[in-house]
């Protein structure tokens, strides 16, 4: 040990205690920041865990939600009208490469297509300057609950063995009733191409003058939706949606019009369970054309995280708390499934150029 | 060059204390953002990336300065195991200061995430999309962060030991506020 210079033993002891307190305090502050003293804190891991009911095996190698899907590539053609709302390059008149994924809102990658009512689309649009716009949309007209915490509780209640769990949840979160009404009345269609995909979350567009606009976006199908009962869909086979979209796009490219709704002052931008009134200004900003379908196994969408906070300059997140929660959870889901790649039924080597 | 200086040069001291603040903030931001799904998550991530690149740039400058300016000698009476510990821990700190940002950058590139520094300014991907590389780098980035923090704590403990117990001038070599790089008097 060192020889203290002109220090009595007591002073050495006091100094050592002081050092221990400082180092221990630093470690404790770190542990507190990491949430180790806060078991109630809703972490990305807890949220992702909640997609798998207790005792079940998670879908190893797959997304933890929207686990079943199929890749597409195509083009987003901006008509220039979006430039009035945002200076993002993607709204300048022109064509931008698009990559995406049609999917089912389920944690089971092997579920029959006719059993899941929520259908979604992940989309990534690339700009020449290297920026990207990623979004993950669903065919719901509004989100089932108001907050990420409520969504977590909904997952727990859905997986609960307590027969009253959902009743208790609905009493605490009455906004879920609108989702129930949608689920029991919305027509099912026989194709991913006939669905309208809604971004649901609000974002802020900044135009070239610096003015900001709160918006939500949707993709409206060019194909005419045709209602088919779930019973009839069940007869079409477990993967009929993937087979149908593959054949349909092989026959002809499929199109959607991207529409941006602009909020009025006072509209609920922070709560995706509340739709905005129908009379809000809408702007058609371009057309998505899906040109090619590829199976997910070795397709270009497999290793893409459609994180809704990957946004180009000119679009930013709003006071809606969901994009942050989704980003944190999607990243965790991505980290897990890439670490579990050996369980995924791929056919080609894992590294792509 | 290991001169007869008592202090690190002013530039070295400035770099040290600036980086000390950055690295401590970075480590707390890192564990903090991994612990929440609230909007602070996005705010923390948006600081974590540019701050990490800033630390990488500062660390490279600092490495060059260190190689050119050297360091004041350790006290002659410092026991050999402590000298060894001092040298090894400083190698570790330099490796982590340079390695952690590169691991983070590579981990994002291997997952095809854009590495956004600030509005509209992205860094190029330094690796191709690869789930196995992403997993390897993610694990390294995650576990080495805890090793980094442990090393920082050890560094602080040792600095305070020099300052309070040994009182041998090692702490003052970095903590001095003197602007002149005076030469050590003969012991």
Give a description of the structure.
The complex is a heterodimer of chains A (353) and B (187). Helices cover 27% and strands 22% of the residues of chain A. Chain A is of the alpha+beta class. In chain A, strands 1, 2, 3, 4, 5, 6, 7, 8, 9 and 10 form a 10-stranded antiparallel beta sheet that branches. In chain A, a hairpin with a 5-residue loop joins strand 6 and strand 7. In chain B, strands 1-2 form a two-stranded antiparallel ribbon. In chain B, strand 1 (115-118) and strand 2 (121-123) form a beta hairpin. In chain B, helix 1 packs antiparallel against helix 2 (40-69). The two termini of chain B are 20 Å apart. The model of chain B has no long low-confidence stretch (mean pLDDT 93). At the A-B interface, helix 1 and helix 8 of A face helix 1, helix 2 and helix 4 of B.
Structure described in brief:
With 353 residues, chain A is an alpha+beta fold. Chain A has helices at residues 9-33, 44-49, 148-159, 165-172, 176-185, 230-234, 240-251, 322-339, and strands at 68-78, 94-104, 119-126, 132-138, 197-198, 203-206, 212-221, 254-262, 282-294, 315-317.
Give a quick set of tags describing it:
heterodimer; A: 353 residues; alpha+beta; ten-stranded antiparallel beta sheet; 10 strands; 22% strand; globular; B: 187 residues; mainly alpha; 5 helices; 2 strands; 68% helix
């Amino acid at each position: 040990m060192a020889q203290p210079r002109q220090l009595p033993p007591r002073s050495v002891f006091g100094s050592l205690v002081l050092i221990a307190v400082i180092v221990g305090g630093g470690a404790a502050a770190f542990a507190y920041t990491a949430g180790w003293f806060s078991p109630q804190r809703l972490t990305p891991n807890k949220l992702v865990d909640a997609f798998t009911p207790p005792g079940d095996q998670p879908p190893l190698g797959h997304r933890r939600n929207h686990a079943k899907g199929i890749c597409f590539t195509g083009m987003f053609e901006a008509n220039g009208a979006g430039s009035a709302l945002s200076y993002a390059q993607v709204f300048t008149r022109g064509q931008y490469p698009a990559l995406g994924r049609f999917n089912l809102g389920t944690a089971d990658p092997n579920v029959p297509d006719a059993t899941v009512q929520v259908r979604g689309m992940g989309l990534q649009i690339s700009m020449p300057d290297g920026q990207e716009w990623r979004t993950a949309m669903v065919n719901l007209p509004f989100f089932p609950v108001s907050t990420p915490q409520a969504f977590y509780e909904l997952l727990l209640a859905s997986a609960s063995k307590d027969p009253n769990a959902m009743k208790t949840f609905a009493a605490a979160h009455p906004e879920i009733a609108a989702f129930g009404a949608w689920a029991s009345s919305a027509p099912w269609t026989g194709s991913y191409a006939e669905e309208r995909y809604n971004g649901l979350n609000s974002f802020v567009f900044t135009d070239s003058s610096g003015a900001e606009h709160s918006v939500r976006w949707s993709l409206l199908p060019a194909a005419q939706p045709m209602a088919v009962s779930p019973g009839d869909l069940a007869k079409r086979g477990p993967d009929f949606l993937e087979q149908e979209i593959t054949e349909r796009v092989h026959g002809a490219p499929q199109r959607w019009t991207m529409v941006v709704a602009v909020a009025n002052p006072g509209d609920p931008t922070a709560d995706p369970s509340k739709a905005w009134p129908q009379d809000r200004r809408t702007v058609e900003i371009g057309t998505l054309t899906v040109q090619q379908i590829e199976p997910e196994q070795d397709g270009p969408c497999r290793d893409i995280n459609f994180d809704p906070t990957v946004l180009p300059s000119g679009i930013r997140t709003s006071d809606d708390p969901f994009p942050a929660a989704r980003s944190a959870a999607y990243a965790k889901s991505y980290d897990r499934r890439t670490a579990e790649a050996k369980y995924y039924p791929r056919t080609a080597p894992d590294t792509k150029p | 060059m290991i001169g007869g200086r008592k202090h690190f040069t002013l530039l070295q001291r400035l770099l040290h204390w600036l980086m000390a603040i950055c690295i401590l903030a970075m480590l707390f931001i890192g564990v903090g953002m991994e612990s929440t799904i609230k909007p602070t998550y996005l705010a923390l991530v948006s600081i974590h990336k540019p701050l990490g690149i800033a630390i990488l740039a500062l660390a490279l400058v600092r490495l060059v300065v260190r190689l050119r300016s050297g360091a004041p000698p350790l006290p002659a009476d410092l026991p050999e195991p402590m000298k060894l510990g001092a040298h090894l821990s400083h190698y570790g700190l330099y490796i982590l200061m340079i390695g952690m940002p590169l691991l983070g950058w590579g981990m994002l590139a291997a997952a095809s995430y854009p590495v956004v520094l600030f509005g509209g300014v992205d860094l190029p991907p330094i690796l191709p999309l690869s789930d196995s590389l992403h997993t390897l780098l993610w694990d390294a980035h995650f576990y080495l962060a805890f090793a980094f923090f442990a090393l920082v704590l050890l560094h602080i403990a040792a600095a305070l030991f020099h300052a309070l117990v040994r009182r041998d001038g090692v702490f003052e070599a970095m903590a001095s506020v003197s602007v002149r790089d005076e030469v050590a008097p003969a012991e």
